[in-house]
Recover the amino acids of this structure.
């Protein structure tokens, strides 16, 4: 069960629902499902192919005491007030939720169906103790007598059954239930309903399924989430000749066209406009100015210019310092670039595989597993990149740099994950990862990722240091005072807002899929937006880098990293605005949400920061290699 208010999924049988005769059986799950908090268990509901059922009785269960002032409510009431939803599965497709009123019928293909509802007049909690299970099937082309399930819809109702329990005990009930279903005998019965609706009345001449008009007829009341409650269900089988088995996930992935494709196209058009404007600025400023600078720097100075010492000004003046190693922690910058390269490769490959259809939501947990395994395998990239940068910076503590790459970001992530796991355990959430999964994560980290980092670092240190077109002087040049708009605060403010503006629409949909249990499967759009994000980060960083060098400030290493990386800061600030949609009111929810959003934002900071440094390094090598240095 999931809730947008708590963000903490809980086990279905934590509430006093009906259980299978032999108790719930856990389904075999992969690593991705455990990390996502999915726990698939067996159900007491019995469905026989193409066999309709009418007001089938399930069980009688005691939900606890009723709602009273100054008294703690029972578990069911608390779950309903926290807006928990059931997530059922039939043949690996999730249940859609049908909601009906006097005028409309709405079907929603995400978030499951609610456990109950709060009455607008009495403000009391009512439980959905009856469901219409509507299953659609498509006949197999080669054998019309067989069918494949292509659609699964649940319509919940709250019906106050007044009943007298039968004398059968639970064990006999379980046997009788199985026997009645297999033999096609009488409907399973645990009680005599004293006030049956038409579908539950055994004396009705015509069998009909439960309808909205029956439930809300005059004199009928909903079932309060308290006391002894009878759970019932209908099963409705219909043939769908239009929907084929291969296309049954389409309506879920598109969320029944709740978000039209044109929204994503408009988002991409907005991003393209930003890229075009930024590219035009670069063409107007950089290309024109650089062409003028090249012609001035490369021509021979006259005797008068030499006498007046006018032959050098602008970015050429810092040619002997521009490739000087960063003054603040070259080791930290090397580690940050290596981790950013690792995250960049993981992101690109994950989006590509998803866009090609390899990571379908039908394969539960596949996306998280792909991200985790690709991150582990890309450890060789992290080691290689950090080693090349650190060797270029003339660092001596090679082992320390490699160890920091192998244990830095993964260690911080694992520490935060343990804290989140403790929070989930304290709340009794199924989000809590079992110890065996923790051991698997540690094996992936220490057994695969860490050796690959050292392996990549070995080849990185074997390579020659990055060659620069100019020599670096032994004495650093003094940097003149800089204007206010070249300060770090303004650079971070402007450097991150354009890349964020190019991707924030897709970011909204991604966050909705993570925090609001919606589907996101437009990875082709996401790949385009991701490329636009990378290009925008590169262009804005190069622009600020040029202005910085023209101001004779050669401390560009960390500045370029933070300029592009500030996109991650904007994502974190945006998470505060998005949090208002979740209606959260628990401390655990705050910790869970902002903890994971801080981790995601920090990862994006490293990824885009690496893009900024790499682009500026290429740009600076290009322009300084194009002029003559005496």
């Amino acid at each position: 069960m999931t809730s947008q208010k708590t963000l903490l999924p809980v086990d279905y049988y934590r509430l006093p629902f009906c259980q299978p005769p032999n108790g719930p059986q856990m389904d075999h799950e992969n690593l991705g499902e455990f990390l996502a908090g999915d726990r698939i268990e067996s159900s007491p509901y019995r469905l026989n192919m193409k066999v309709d059922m009418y007001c089938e009785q399930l069980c009688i269960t005691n939900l606890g005491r009723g709602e009273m002032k100054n008294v703690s409510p029972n578990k069911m009431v608390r779950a309903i007030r926290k807006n928990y939803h059931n997530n059922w599965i039939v043949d690996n497709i999730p249940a859609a939720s049908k909601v009906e009123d006097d005028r409309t019928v709405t079907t929603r293909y995400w978030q499951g169906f609610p456990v109950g509802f709060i009455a607008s007049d009495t403000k009391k909690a009512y439980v959905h103790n009856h469901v219409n299970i509507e299953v659609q099937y498509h006949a197999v082309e080669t054998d019309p007598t067989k069918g494949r399930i292509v659609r699964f819809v649940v319509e919940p109702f709250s019906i106050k059954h007044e009943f007298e329990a039968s004398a059968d005990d639970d064990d006999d009930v379980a046997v009788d239930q199985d026997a009645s279903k297999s033999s096609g005998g009488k409907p399973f019965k645990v009680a005599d309903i004293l006030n049956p609706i038409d579908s539950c009345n055994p004396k009705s001449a015509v069998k009909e399924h439960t309808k909205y008009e029956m439930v809300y007829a005059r004199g009928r009341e909903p079932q309060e989430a308290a006391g002894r409650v009878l759970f019932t269900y209908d099963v409705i089988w219909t043939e769908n000749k239009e929907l084929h088995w291969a296309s049954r996930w389409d309506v879920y992935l598109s969320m029944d066209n709740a978000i039209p494709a044109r929204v994503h196209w408009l988002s991409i058009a907005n991003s393209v406009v930003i890229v075009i404007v930024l590219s035009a600025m670069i063409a107007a400023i950089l290309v024109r100015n650089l062409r003028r600078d090249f012609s001035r720097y490369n021509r021979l100075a006259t005797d008068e210019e030499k006498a007046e010492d006018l032959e050098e000004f602008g970015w050429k003046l810092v040619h002997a310092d521009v490739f000087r190693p960063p003054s603040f922690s070259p080791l930290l910058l090397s580690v940050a670039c290596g981790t950013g390269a690792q995250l960049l490769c993981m992101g690109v490959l994950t989006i590509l595989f998803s866009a090609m259809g390899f990571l379908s939501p039908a394969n539960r947990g596949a996306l998280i597993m792909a991200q985790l395994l690709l991150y582990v395998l890309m450890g060789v990239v992290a080691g290689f990149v950090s080693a090349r940068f650190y060797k270029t910076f003339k660092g001596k503590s090679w082992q320390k740099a490699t160890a920091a790459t192998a244990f830095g970001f993964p260690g911080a992530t694992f520490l935060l994950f343990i804290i989140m796991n403790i929070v989930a355990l304290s709340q009794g959430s199924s989000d809590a990862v079992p110890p065996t999964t923790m051991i698997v994560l540690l094996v992936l980290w220490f057994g695969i990722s860490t050796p690959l980092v050292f392996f990549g670092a070995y080849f990185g240190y074997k390579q020659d240091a990055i060659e620069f077109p100019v020599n670096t002087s032994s004495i650093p040049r003094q940097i003149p005072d800089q204007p206010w708009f070249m300060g770090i605060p303004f650079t971070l403010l402007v450097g991150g807002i354009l890349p964020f503006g190019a991707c924030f629409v897709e970011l909204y949909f991604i966050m909705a899929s993570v925090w609001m249990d919606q589907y996101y499967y437009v990875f082709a759009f996401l790949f385009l937006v991701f490329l636009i994000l990378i290009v925008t980060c590169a262009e804005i960083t190069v622009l600020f880098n040029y202005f910085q060098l023209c101001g004779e400030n050669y401390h560009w290493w960390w500045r370029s990293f933070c300029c592009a990386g500030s996109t991650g800061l904007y994502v974190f600030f945006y998470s505060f605005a998005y949090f208002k949609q979740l209606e959260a009111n628990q401390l655990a929810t705050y910790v869970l949400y902002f903890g994971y959003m801080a981790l995601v934002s920090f990862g994006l900071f490293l990824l885009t920061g690496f893009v900024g440094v790499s682009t500026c390094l290429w740009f600076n090598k290009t322009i300084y290699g194009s002029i003559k240095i005496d």
About this structure: The CA atoms of residues 60 and 230 lie 5 Å apart. The first strand starts at residue 53 and ends at 62. The chain has a mean pLDDT of 84.
